[in-house]
Design a protein that fits this description.
single chain, 491 residues, alpha/beta, dopa decarboxylase, N-terminal domain, Aspartate Aminotransferase, domain 2, Aspartate Aminotransferase, domain 1, 3 domains, 7-stranded mixed beta sheet, 4-stranded antiparallel beta sheet, 17 helices, binds pyridoxal-5'-phosphate
């Protein structure tokens, strides 16, 4: 029985004015705004031209006391935010690695926000968990990764926010497994050591540090003339550590280095890791996407059947928005052992039954977004053949660009082209190459980045944008040669 004189609850908060009708009306306008932005992007300079502090100086310094209409917000987007962007979806964006995006994925993000679920445990939204498991099983099949990563066995896939997080969780799993297998040393984390090539991404050192091994525990193994890990040097470093009483715990192999897209000899690295009982993680952050094409797959998945974990970013070269890193494990138990926390308020019968996955146990944060929607929608609404066509196009256009570089005596390829990545420079040296980069990017039609490759400064052209067409790669070559011609005249 309710208390007879219970007071009525206070009136609702002010955002009740944002009701379903207003959401529908303004939501349509926002979708239109996005469509206009994407379809007119090519006319904008790729890189933002604003000076430091300009964006902030243009916006209100304090939060508004009273509501402002969508028009006011969109006006600021047009006037301040867009000019303050470097347009990663611009068809002339070739810098770093691409940041995948695409219609189905953007809609998936919208739906995820609209549903607003928090999928930390199976029980907190069964569909959020089960769709993720399914999407990662689909993706494993699409990439031709081994059966041992399927969710039907002791392993399975999970979506992390980034390759850095994927690697960190793999180091945690490695640490748990090694310590569990060596009970006498369970508290001796200070003896654990990790290995990656000197060309591996900086996230390896970061992850090894955060996981408690300490950054100094990472051995940066020399690379060969190609820029791939020197396996003899790895073997020697591991043997030396064992002699000194240290415990090889974790090896990261890179499939597609950040600078030049070089692929480490994963099968040989796997043999060394196995010899010492160390965990093998494969970081294929960018290049992994190319495995959707059977003819490109071989070197990308080579050695995967001996890896303990394997990860890549659909949010780089597949048309799936940040954030979406796909990580597969051959055995999920050490990961869960390292990361599961079940305070009383999270306990539930489904978890206790052991029949469900609680993805909070596979990652650092507790809460998790419904990221699987955008991946699943991309696969469904584009279809796998379209994904292959895109990758094939990008690789062919990069080969065309590399051929132009070869045929112009002013330029040199500074590494063999890798998939859709071309590293090149001016024969006259690093200073001239740096000046060329500055010129090309200032012209605004295309944007390139740079990296040190084989001790030289290289310009990097990474083809992979969702909106990039063959003409944009042709334009990139025209821009590079125009800037080089101008430099010759000035010189
Ligand atoms: N690994 C490699 C080979 C990369 O190239 C990158 C970034 O480009 C990363 C890891 C880090 O990726 P994320 O930003 O997803 O952490």
């Amino acid at each position: 029985m309710p208390a007879p004189d219970a007071p009525a609850p206070p009136p609702g908060p002010g955002d009740a004015a944002f009701d379903a009708e207003r959401f529908r009306r303004e939501g349509r306008r926002v979708v239109d705004w996005i469509a206009d932005y994407l379809s007119t992007l090519a006319a904008r300079p790729v890189q933002s031209q604003v000076a430091p502090g300009w964006v902030r100086s243009q916006l209100a310094a304090h939060p508004p006391e009273n509501p402002e209409p969508l028009d006011a917000v969109l006006a600021d987007l047009d006037r301040v935010i867009v000019p303050g962007l470097t347009h990663w979806q611009h068809p002339g964006f070739f810098a770093f690695f691409p940041a995948g995006s695409g219609g189905p994925s953007i809609l998936g993000e919208l739906l995820a926000a609209g549903l607003g679920v928090q999928g930390m445990l199976w029980i907190t939204s069964p569909a959020c968990t089960e769709l993720e498991t399914l999407a990662l099983d689909w993706l494993r099949e699409l990439l031709g990764l081994p059966e041992r990563f399927a969710s039907t066995g002791p392993g399975g896939g999970v979506i992390q926010d980034s390759a850095s997080s994927g690697l960190l969780t793999a180091v945690v799993a490695a640490r748990e497994r090694v310590l569990a297998e060596a009970p006498a040393r369970t508290t001796d984390i200070g003896r654990l050591v990790a290995y990656a090539s000197a060309a591996a991404h900086s996230s390896v050192e970061k992850g090894v540090g955060i996981a408690g091994l300490g950054r100094a525990a990472l051995r940066k193994i020399a690379v060969d003339a190609r820029g791939a890990m020197d396996v003899a040097a790895l073997a020697a470093a591991m043997a030396e550590d064992v002699r000194a009483g240290r415990i090889p715990c974790f090896v990261a192999a890179t499939v597609g280095t950040t600078a030049a897209g070089v692929i480490d000899p994963v099968p040989a690295i796997a043999a060394e890791a196995r010899r010492h009982g160390a965990w093998l993680h494969v970081d294929a952050a960018w290049a992994g996407a190319a495995a959707v094409c059977p003819e490109l797959r071989g070197p990308i998945v080579a050695g995967a059947e001996a890896a303990d974990s394997w990860g890549f970013n659909p949010h780089k070269w597949l048309p799936v928005n940040l954030d979406c890193h796909a990580l597969w494990l051959a055995d999920r138990r050490p990961l869960i052992h390292g990361l599961s926390m079940k305070p009383d308020y999270l306990r539930n019968a489904a978890t206790e039954s052991g029949a469900v996955i609680d993805y909070a146990d596979w990652q650092v944060p507790l809460g998790r977004r419904f990221r699987a929607l955008k991946l699943w929608m991309t696969l469904r609404m584009l279809g796998t053949e379209a994904l292959r066509d895109r990758i094939r196009g990008h690789v062919a256009w990069a080969a065309w660009f590399a051929e132009r570089v070869r045929s112009d005596s002013r330029f040199a390829l500074l590494a063999p082209p890798s998939l859709s990545l071309v590293c090149f420079g001016l024969e006259t040296g690093d200073e001239a190459t740096a000046a060329l980069l500055e010129q090309v990017n200032r012209r605004g039609r295309v944007c390139l980045s740079s990296a040190t490759v084989g001790g030289r400064l290289a310009l990097r052209l990474a083809v992979g944008g969702t909106l990039t067409r063959r003409e944009d790669v042709e334009a990139a070559w025209a821009e590079v040669t125009a800037a080089a011609n101008a430099a010759t005249h000035d010189g």
